[in-house]
Amino acid sequence: MSSPRQLEENSIPAEQQNQTGDVPESPIRDEKPVFMDLPEIPSTNLSFDFSTLIDPETAAKVEKVQKRQSNVLKLAEENEKLKAELKAMTDRLEAAERRKKELISLEERST
């Protein structure tokens, strides 16, 4: 373990640090925190479009695929709605057929 005197002897004066680009060993010793200039992060729109990173032909293909995907999803939703309507109509038809059979059997019994 080194003594405080050895640390002081090995440290670089602040004037030389700026010139040589050396960073102090401990910013706590100097009691000056080291801050770097960082770019400001936008807070409103954090979405990113990858089409800016790829060539236009690939971007056009990606757009077509996304459009197809959207169309497929819409058709799948519509298909589910139609299936539900068909099931409801089938249930009503079966109920009507059962009621018709009941009425026919009641009519036969009464005669």
List the helices and strands and how they pair.
Blueprint: H1 4-10, H2 14-20, H3 27-30, H4 56-110
Could you characterize what this model shows?
The chain is built from four helices and no strands. With 111 residues, the chain is mostly helical. The chain starts with a helix and ends with a helix. About 5% of the residues have low confidence.
The level of helicity is 55-70%
Q: Please give the count of helices.
A: 4
Strand content: under 5%
Beta strands, count: 0
- On the 0-100 scale, what is the average pLDDT? 76
Query: What is the string of SSEs from the N terminus onward?
Result: HHHH
Our measurement of the CA-to-CA distance between the termini, rounded to an integer number of angstroms, reads: 115 Å
Over all CA atoms, what is the radius of gyration?
Answer: 39 Å
Major sheet size, sense and barrel closure: none
What is the overall shape?
A: elongated
* Uncertain spans: 5-9
- Structural class from helices and strands? mainly alpha
Coiled coil: 65-106
Keywords: Coiled coil
Region (Disordered): 1-31
Q: Would you kindly provide a brief summary of this structure?
A:
By secondary structure, the protein is mostly helical. The chain has helices at 4-10, 14-20, 27-30, 56-110.
What are the main properties of this structure?
single chain; 111 residues; mainly alpha; 4 helices; 0% strand; elongated; coiled coil
